[in-house]
Amino acid sequence: xxxxxxxxxxxxxxxxxxxxxxxxxxxxxxxxxxxxxxxxxxxxxxxxxxxxxxxxxxxxxxxxxxxxxxxxxxxxxxxxxxxxxxxxxxxxxxxxxxxxxxxxxxxxxxxxxxxxxxxxxxxxxxxxxxxxxxxxxxxxxxxxxxxxxxxxxxxxxxxxxxxxxxxxxxxxxxxxxxxxxxxxxxxxxxxxxxxxxxxxxxxxxxxxxxxxxxxxxxxxx
Amino acid sequence: xxxxxxxxxxxxxxxxxxxxxxxxxxxxxxxxxxxxxxxxxxxxxxxxxxxxxxxxxxxxxxxxxxxxxxxxxxxxxxxxxxxxxxxxxxxxxxxxxxxxxxxxxxxxxxxxxxxxxxxxxxxxxxxxxxxxxxxxxxxxxxxxxxxxxxxxxxxxxxxxxxxxxxxxxxxxxxxxxxxxxxxxxxxxxxxxxxxxxxxxxxxxxxxxxxxxxxxxxxxxx
DNA sequence: GCCCCGCATTGATCTGGATCAAAACCGCGC
DNA sequence: GCGCGGTTTTGATCCAGATCAATGCGGGGC
Lengths: 221, 221
What we know:
Chain A is α+β, with helices and mostly antiparallel strands. Chain A folds into two domains: 6-135, Jelly Rolls (Sandwich), CATH 2.60.120.10; 142-220, Orthogonal Bundle (Arc Repressor Mutant, subunit A). Chain A is 43% helix and 24% strand. Chain A is built from seven helices and eleven strands. Chain A has helices at 16-25, 103-112, 114-140, 143-160, 174-181, 185-197, 213-220, and strands at 27-31, 36-38, 46-52, 55-60, 66-72, 77-78, 89-92, 96-102, 167-169, 201-204, 207-210. In chain A, strands 1-8-3-6 form a four-stranded antiparallel sheet. In chain A, strands 2-7-4-5 form a four-stranded antiparallel sheet. In chain A, strands 9-11-10 form a three-stranded antiparallel sheet. In chain A, a hairpin with a 5-residue loop joins strand 4 (55-60) and strand 5. The longest helix of chain A has 27 residues, at 114-140. The radius of gyration of chain A is 18 Å and the shape is globular. Chain B binds a DNA duplex through helix 6.
């Protein structure tokens, strides 16, 4: 497994021989941009560990309203929050590569490796903390605060993956950002424009440069 | 430990001797209505298992805006989503009794009892699923849908605790409901009035009677 | 019983963000 | 380079829910 995210991912807790066990179970899969990894409600035969690319994770209402519950970056694990069926859909934003594990084999391994379970539990509680932060954002923040928090959070996430920079890549569309922040595409666009006019950010191709981190951190509180 | 929530709680996974170990660690604590269990950012010396009453779990912004991230009912475990400090505050809505465990003793026990860890992990992933559901609600649903979903969810939760009934107790204030649903108290009140006029619900002291479950389930989708 | 006092309801008005509607941009294929 | 389809930006208007402002109501203390 030529895994470039080993140190930040679930696998970081494992010994060499445990990794070999895991290797035997994993099959690396490539999903081209826009392809579906899995769909909400579908029986969860596999779980995934993203190794490259970005995926959007979302829930749909019957009338088509969409809420993106998260963006999965390299190192993220998909399959924590499901019993038999996936609780959300996932699709590739750019080209995504992922380690897929059959759920039964993965469950069996987790049973007998408490290290791995502890690591997964850490991931789950971290996700839960982020989800609660997102509830605050969705329920109580203004459009400008939402976008500011989002940009800072994305910078932070890329930084943890070894790409610390004030230039933040944004591979997702404006519509995706809107559906993540509980806004419309027009409001997201207008808010980007406003932050750019304020010289808080500079809009660059496929991303944004953060020009006034102090001010942004203050808005995000 | 005269624990009335044993079957639905974390403890359900334990054997008799493990329960005795846990008993030795627990001290039952009573919090009168409005008292604080713990505060966001405070070092987390204890974790809690609610045995009676209802607590509100919330985050505050520096300017006072509040988001309630959940209501803790009997059987709920508080202390999943924190590293060293609590990620949210909790206070008693009515009289709350809880089993408190010192965090260090609890961590040590979890280390050596994979049963308990697996159970905690189940709780965490369940919480995560609920949190994602709440994101959908906060980001994409209308006021009427929000309240309808909330009332159905509360009914479900009381039912799982052995109180199945179309009369749903609501010990929390209108302001609490507003801060949970990302609305104002006025909108919550108006929406209650509208649902009552539609004969979807009947407002009773400290709660609500659900008069048209089919219609509510349809709105909640 | 009656007076508070904190909560809830109702009413009137305002507004942030949604909706509707063009334009502008930006690859990409030919 | 040019045309074309999808995305983004900008503009004009609208409206769900917020805000501001009384009024109502219920339970506890005396």
